[in-house]
């Protein structure tokens, strides 16, 4: 950060505090805070103060929109999921084609009857379009946010779905439960 920020820039940066807001509004306000500090650290001149003023107005409108949605019973989901969030993943035909043979092999090999303590792929058959809860294990913030997911199948095993984007189609995740 430049050693000598203009007092007007310093004052504007104080407007981007968000620790006093409820958690769901902090998630809306934080990206504006981060951008404001990035601008102040990398740019100089009176235009910076003007840019921060316009950014502050935009932040206020975004927080108001999120607050209004919360009052109407719809707390906004964060724009980017975090590690540990639970989402809902819709299987693709390719996913099902990998999962089902593992489960068949466990029974056909006799491992299911041997009771040796071997843990196999046990569970109901899966089909394209089936929806299962999934835990976000990694977030990739590229031009499109993608996530690696540990999909909790109906059985003893899980499916690792990598680099999946948000959406309602097979191969994508959504925050909405009960999708079909």
Topology (SSEs and partners):
Layout: H1 7-14, H2 23-42, H3 46-71, E1 86-90, H4 93-108, H5 111-114, E2 131-141, E3 145-152, E4 158-165, E5 173-174
Antiparallel strand pairs: 1-2, 1-5, 2-3, 3-4
Helix pairs in contact: 1-3, 2-3
Structural description of this entry:
- This protein has 180 residues and is an alpha+beta fold.
- It is 41% helix and 19% strand.
- The protein has five helices and five strands, in the order H-H-H-E-H-H-E-E-E-E.
- The chain has helices at 7-14, 23-42, 46-71, 93-108, 111-114, and strands at residues 86-90, 131-141, 145-152, 158-165, 173-174.
- The chain has a five-stranded antiparallel beta sheet, with no helix packed on it.
- A hairpin with a 3-residue loop joins strand 2 and strand 3 (145-152).
- Helix 2 packs antiparallel against helix 3.
- The longest helix is centred in the N-terminal third of the chain and has 26 residues, at 46-71.
- The model has no long low-confidence stretch (mean pLDDT 84).
């Amino acid at each position: 950060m430049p050693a000598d920020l203009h007092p007007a820039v310093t004052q504007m940066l104080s407007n981007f505090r968000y620790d006093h807001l409820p958690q769901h509004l902090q998630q809306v306000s934080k990206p504006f805070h981060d951008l404001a500090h990035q601008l102040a650290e990398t740019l100089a001149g009176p235009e910076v103060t003007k840019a921060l003023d316009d950014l502050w107005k935009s932040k206020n409108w975004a927080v108001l929109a999120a607050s209004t949605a919360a009052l109407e019973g719809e707390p906004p989901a964060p724009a980017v999921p975090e590690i540990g969030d639970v989402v809902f993943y819709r299987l693709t035909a390719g996913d099902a084609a990998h999962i089902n043979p593992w489960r068949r092999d466990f029974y056909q090999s006799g491992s299911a009857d041997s009771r040796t303590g071997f843990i196999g792929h046990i569970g109901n058959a899966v089909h394209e379009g089936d929806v299962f809860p999934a835990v976000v294990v990694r977030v990739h913030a590229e031009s499109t946010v993608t996530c690696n997911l540990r999909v909790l199948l109906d059985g003893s095993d899980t499916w690792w779905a990598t680099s999946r984007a948000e959406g309602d189609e097979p191969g994508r995740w959504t925050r909405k439960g009960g999708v079909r």
